């Protein structure tokens, strides 16, 4: 038996509930790709809170606590200011709010690049304090030794190559990668390097489609695309982008709802009722029983 958490929607509290462990594992994710092909693509979305995780969990194979929370939750200009403490706090919440999906947590900028030992100290803290199953880190060949160091010590790693947001200053922006022959070859080499180092999967972001297809076909590990190709072994999006929480819609995003409009309309109706004193009504106040 394993202790999981059920979110009581009447109180918004996570209550520990003994239940058989049914959460997807790293080996289970790896087994979805057989002889270089994945019949049923893997589904991954970002999640940052317990309630969000609870809603997304039944539909996903993996939930990523992404450092994109810097922009989505905290209104920061990029992912660079995100701290390890922020990632741990949100990672623990997502683990508490989920049951089925494999939960992995992004390693924030500055928490792993200095050395494999630094990466291990940060990653081991993330896993111990959140209960997540794996970490994700950005970088290709430069991070191969670090990925090997972590995986050899029992920390599963999802790699991230192509457009790497933590390196946005070096890359000069968020444009698609792989346009030149030189960059095409480098990203291919990066993908092969992280796979050889022991990454159980790799996120491939913002690359030309032909490159995404070539990388997916050349690796034995699952390739999770974002702004890449439907040919990839799975897809990931920032949940808030998919749900329509922001006006801007990146090229690689399909908006499945317009939650921002729903929230705005609800707030407008609430404000009007407060101002004309039609809320609260008798149904929302406490009165002595007769």
UniProtKB/TrEMBL annotation:
Gene name for this UniProt entry: panB
Gene Ontology MF, one: 3-methyl-2-oxobutanoate hydroxymethyltransferase activity
Protein name (database record): 3-methyl-2-oxobutanoate hydroxymethyltransferase
Subcellular location: Cytoplasm
Catalyzed reaction equations: (6R)-5,10-methylene-5,6,7,8-tetrahydrofolate + 3-methyl-2-oxobutanoate + H2O = 2-dehydropantoate + (6S)-5,6,7,8-tetrahydrofolate
Cross-referenced Pfam families: Pantoate_transf
EC code(s) of this entry: 2.1.2.11
Functional summary from the UniProt entry: Catalyzes the reversible reaction in which hydroxymethyl group from 5,10-methylenetetrahydrofolate is transferred onto alpha-ketoisovalerate to form ketopantoate.
């Amino acid at each position: 038996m394993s202790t999981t958490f059920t979110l009581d929607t009447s109180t918004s509290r996570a209550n520990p509930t003994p239940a058989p462990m049914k959460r997807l594992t790293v080996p289970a994710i790896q087994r979805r790709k057989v002889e270089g092909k994945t019949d049923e693509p893997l589904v991954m979305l970002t999640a940052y809170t317990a309630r969000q995780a609870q809603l997304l969990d039944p539909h996903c194979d993996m939930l990523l606590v992404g450092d994109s929370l810097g922009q989505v939750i905290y209104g920061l200009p990029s992912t660079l200011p995100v701290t390890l403490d922020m990632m741990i706090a949100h990672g623990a919440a997502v683990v508490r709010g989920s049951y089925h999906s494999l939960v992995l947590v992004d390693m924030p900028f500055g928490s792993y690049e200095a050395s494999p030992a630094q990466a291990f100290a940060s990653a081991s803290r993330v896993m111990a304090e959140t209960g997540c199953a794996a970490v994700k880190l950005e970088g290709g060949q430069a991070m191969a030794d670090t990925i090997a160091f972590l995986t050899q010590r029992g920390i599963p790693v999802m790699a991230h190559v192509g457009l790497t947001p933590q390196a946005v200053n070096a890359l000069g922006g968020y444009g698609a990668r792989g346009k030149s022959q030189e960059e095409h070859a480098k990203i291919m080499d990066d993908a092969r390097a992280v796979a050889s180092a022991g990454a159980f999967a790799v996120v491939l972001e913002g690359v030309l489609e032909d490159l995404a297809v070539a990388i997916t076909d050349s690796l034995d590990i699952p390739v999770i695309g974002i702004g890449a190709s439907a040919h990839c072994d799975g897809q990931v999006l920032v949940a808030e982008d998919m749900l329509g929480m922001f006006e801007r819609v990146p090229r690689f995003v399909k908006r499945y709802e317009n939650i921002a409009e729903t929230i705005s309309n609800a707030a407008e109706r609430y404000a009007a009722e407060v101002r004309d004193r039609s809320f609260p009504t008798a149904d929302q106040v406490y009165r002595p029983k007769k």
